[in-house]
Design brief:
Chain lengths: 504, 120
C-alpha cells in the first residue's frame, strides 16, 4: 500500500505544472455556528467548493458556497470553525464537492468527505465522484425487475423490494428500523448475484456505528459494505452531505454495471441538519421551520436511485431511506414528503413491537408499489394468499378473546392468522434466505402446520429447514435457489418432504 | 447606530471629497458611535478614489523585507492611476503574492505552490 502511495506522489510531483494567473478571492466578514459570510468572490458558483486560508493556524479549510447574495455569499464550513477568523482569505476552486470512489472503499468506514475514519490506512482511488449529480434520465432507465431479498420473511413475502427501487422504512424510535436494514445487508451473503451495500449513518451515536461495523465485520458482510458516517457530534454540514456522499459511492458501482444498495439512516436527522443550516443562513423558514426546498432536497437525492437499461450497463441503485416518526405520526411534514417520493414503505409499529411481533411490520399500512414485478416467482406463488389471510385475521382479531363462542370457520381463520403471525416472527441478525422462506410459508399457508402450538412453530421451522438441507439439497433447495421458481416437480418434492417430515 | 464603512465611504464620495466634508464625516462617525471605524472608512475611500480614476488597488506581500530599490522597481510596474501598498508575510516562505482590488489574487509564493500541489 505505501509503495502505491509513494508512486502516486512521485507521479504528481513530477507532473506538477504551475500556471500563475489572477484568481478570484474573498474575505471572511462574519463567522459563527459553522456558517461564514464572505465578501468578494463575486464569480462564485452555487455549491462551489471554496478554500478558507486561516490566519490563526495557517490551515486550509474547505467550505461550500450556499447562498449567493448581492454583497456577500453565505458559506457552509466543512472543517474546524474555531480556527477561522474575520479577514481570512477565501478562494474558489471552480470545482463542486467530490469524494474518491472505487473498490478500495469496500470494507471501510469513511466520512462524508471521503476520508477514512476507521484507522485502516489511506484509501487509494483513481476516480472521483461529485456529491451532487443529476439523476439518470428516463431514456437510460428500465423498470425494476430483479428482486432484492432482505431476508425478512414478512418483507420478502408481502412487501417485496426490487433492485433499483426506493422503499421507505418508517416507524417510531426503537421499533427495529435499523435491524431491518442490517438484516438486509447480512442477507446479501446468501444471494446469487451480490449487492454492494452502502450504509449511511446520519446523526447516530459513535458507539452505535462502531457496534454496527463490528456486527457486519464479524458476519463477513463488510467485504461488500461501505459505511459513510456523520455521527451526532459532527457539524450540521457533514450531516447534510452524508446521504449525498453515500449515493455518489453507490453510483460508482451502478455505473460499473453492479447492483448497489444505499441505506440512509436516517433522513429525519438529515432534514433537521438541513433546517439548521438554512436557518443559520437566514433562509426563510416554512412549515415546521424547514426551508421551502426540503422536498427538493430529498427528491433529488432519492431520484438518483435507478435501474439502468442494458445500454447503460444494467446496474442498479436501490435506496432504503429510514424516517423516524414521533408517536406514530406519519402525517407530519418530512414523513409525508418522503412517503410521496418513494416507491412504497415498510411501516413499523411500537404496539406490535411490544406485543412481541418482531419485525413489527404493520402489513396493512406497508406497501411496495413496484416490487411485486420483481418478486421471485416461487415467493409470489407461495405468498400470494398471505396478505389476504392476514387482513382477514386482523378484522377478526378483536374477537380472539371470545373464540369459544365463534363458529368453526371463524375460529379456523383466527387460528391460521395466529399461526402465520408466529411464522413471520423473526429475531434480528438472522435473515432467512428466500429458498428457506418459501418452503416454510408453503407449509404454513398450505395448512400443513395447522394445529401446531404457537411455541412449537420456531422449532418446527428450524428442524424442517435442517431436514430439507440434509435430505433435499440437490433436488429441492438447489433448483429453487438457481431458478427462483416453484414448478410442479419441485412443488411435489416439497409436499412429499413435508409429509415425511411430519411423520418423523 | 452603526453603519458599514462602505456606506460612509460611498456617501462621502457622492457628496464630493473635500476637506470640509472629511471633517464633517469624522464628526458624524463619532456621533453615530462609529469612531473606531475611521481606518476602515479611509481605506474604503481610497479604494473608491482608485476605482473612480479607473485604476486598481494592489496589495503586494513579500516573504521578507524588501529593499527600497526593489520596491521602486516594483512600483514602476504599476500605472499612475493605481495605488499599491506592501507588507511582509513570512508565511509565504519565499516569493510574492499580489492582491488586486481585494477580489483577485496572483500567488507566486512557495506556500502557494505547495498548496496547489497538495490540492491536486
Amino acid at each position: 500500500m505505501s509503495y502505491e502511495i509513494i508512486e502516486k506522489l512521485k507521479r504528481e510531483i513530477a507532473g506538477f505544472k504551475d500556471d500563475p494567473k489572477f484568481k478570484s478571492i474573498g474575505t471572511v466578514v462574519e463567522c459563527a455556528d459553522g456558517i461564514a459570510r464572505v465578501s468578494g468572490l463575486s464569480g462564485a458558483l452555487s455549491q462551489e467548493l471554496l478554500e478558507i486560508e486561516t490566519k490563526n493556524d495557517k490551515s486550509i479549510i474547505p467550505a461550500i458556497a450556499f447562498n449567493l447574495e448581492e454583497e456577500f455569499i453565505g458559506v457552509v464550513i466543512l472543517g474546524s470553525v474555531s480556527s477561522i477568523g474575520v479577514g481570512d482569505k477565501v478562494k474558489g476552486t471552480g470545482k463542486v464537492l467530490s469524494l474518491p470512489v472505487g473498490d478500495a472503499l469496500l470494507g471501510r468506514v469513511i466520512s462524508p468527505l471521503g476520508e477514512p475514519i476507521d484507522g485502516r490506512g489511506a484509501i487509494v482511488s483513481d476516480a472521483n465522484y461529485t456529491l451532487e449529480r443529476s439523476a439518470p434520465n428516463v431514456v437510460s432507465r428500465e423498470s425494476v425487475k430483479e428482486p432484492l431479498h432482505t431476508g425478512i420473511k414478512a418483507v420478502d413475502s408481502m412487501i417485496p423490494i426490487g433492485r433499483g427501487q426506493r422503499e421507505l422504512i418508517i416507524g417510531d424510535r426503537q421499533t427495529g428500523k435499523t435491524a431491518i436494514v442490517l438484516d438486509t445487508i447480512l442477507n446479501q451473503k446468501n444471494e446469487k448475484k451480490p449487492i454492494i451495500c452502502v450504509y449511511v449513518s446520519v446523526g447516530q451515536k459513535q458507539s452505535k456505528i462502531a457496534q454496527i461495523e463490528r456486527k457486519l465485520r464479524e458476519a463477513g458482510a463488510m467485504d461488500y459494505t461501505i459505511i459513510v458516517s456523520a455521527p451526532a457530534g459532527a457539524p450540521a454540514p457533514l450531516l447534510y452531505l452524508a446521504p449525498f456522499a453515500g449515493t455518489a459511492v453507490g453510483e460508482y458501482f451502478m455505473d460499473k454495471g453492479a447492483d448497489a444498495l444505499v441505506i440512509y439512516d436516517d433522513l429525519s436527522k438529515h432534514a433537521d441538519a438541513y433546517r439548521e443550516l438554512s436557518l443559520l443562513l437566514r433562509r426563510s423558514p416554512g412549515r415546521e421551520a424547514y426551508p421551502g426546498d426540503i422536498f427538493y432536497l430529498h427528491s433529488r437525492l432519492l431520484e438518483r436511485s435507478a435501474k439502468l437499461d442494458r445500454n447503460h450497463g444494467s446496474g442498479s441503485l436501490t435506496a432504503l431511506p429510514i424516517i423516524e416518526t414521533k408517536l406514530g405520526d406519519v402525517s407530519s411534514y418530512i414523513p409525508t414528503n418522503v412517503i410521496s417520493i418513494t416507491d412504497g414503505q415498510i411501516y413499523l409499529e411500537s404496539n406490535l413491537f411490544y406485543q412481541g411481533i418482531r419485525p413489527a411490520v404493520n402489513v396493512g399500512l406497508s406497501v411496495s408499489r413496484v416490487g411485486s414485478a420483481a418478486q421471485t416467482k416461487a415467493m409470489k406463488k407461495v405468498a400470494g394468499k398471505l396478505r389476504l389471510e392476514l387482513a382477514q385475521f386482523r378484522e377478526l382479531a378483536a374477537f380472539v378473546q371470545f373464540a369459544s363462542d365463534l363458529d368453526e370457520d371463524t375460529r379456523a381463520r383466527i387460528a391460521r392468522g395466529e399461526l402465520l403471525t408466529e411464522v413471520l416472527k423473526q429475531t434480528d441478525g438472522a435473515p432467512k434466505a428466500f429458498y428457506h422462506t418459501v418452503p416454510i410459508l408453503y407449509a404454513a399457508i398450505g395448512g400443513y402446520m395447522d394445529g401446531l402450538a404457537k411455541d412449537k412453530v420456531r422449532d418446527f421451522e428450524t428442524k424442517f429447514i435442517e431436514y430439507l438441507e440434509k435430505r433435499h439439497k440437490e433436488d429441492f433447495i438447489k433448483p429453487l435457489k438457481e431458478s427462483g421458481t416453484l414448478d410442479e416437480k419441485t412443488e411435489s418434492i416439497l409436499k412429499e418432504a413435508i409429509d415425511k417430515f411430519k411423520s418423523l | 447606530m452603526k453603519f458599514p464603512a462602505k456606506n460612509y465611504a460611498q456617501a462621502f464620495m457622492e457628496l464630493g471629497a473635500n476637506e470640509e466634508h472629511s471633517k464633517r464625516l469624522f464628526e458624524v462617525m463619532e456621533k453615530n458611535g462609529d469612531g473606531s471605524q475611521k481606518n476602515k472608512v479611509v481605506k474604503e475611500i481610497e479604494k473608491l478614489i482608485v476605482k473612480k480614476n479607473k485604476g486598481h488597488f494592489y496589495q503586494v506581500s513579500f516573504a521578507r523585507t524588501s529593499e527600497a530599490k526593489e520596491l521602486e522597481s516594483i512600483s514602476s510596474q504599476f500605472g499612475a492611476k493605481d495605488r499599491f501598498v506592501t507588507n511582509v508575510a513570512p508565511e509565504l516562505v519565499a516569493g510574492v503574492r499580489i492582491v488586486r482590488d481585494e477580489e483577485e489574487e496572483l500567488d507566486l509564493s512557495f506556500t502557494g505552490k505547495l498548496n496547489k500541489l497538495f490540492s491536486n
